[in-house]
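Q: You know discrete backbone vocabularies at least as well as I do. I have my own habits and do not want them to colour yours. No explanation is needed for now; the record alone will do.
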Amino acid sequence: MSYVDTLAEEVRSKIPKDLLPDGDTIPLFRLYALLALTKGAEVTAADVHDAWAVWMSSTDPQHPALRPFTELSPEKRQEDQVFVDAIRDVAAQNPWIR
């Protein structure tokens, strides 16, 4: 398993099962691993949404939340926070991540 997949699994393990998206989420969590590597503690909910949008564009291109983060309702925006927290936590637990 690559270090990217290890990070992806670490992020995934911090998400409650009832909040995991349906379908093949390996590509999504690889994107979240990339955010851990590149943004670390500075990752934002908008970053998480953009990564999700990249994944969703090939999964369900008609999804109603597939729009810029700023156009989402406050409730929808808040749904990304659990992923932000998980990515930040994984980045903090891996001292080799900048």
Observations:
- The CA atoms of residues 64 and 72 lie 10 Å apart.
- The longest helix spans residues 45-59.
- Residues 3-93 form one domain.
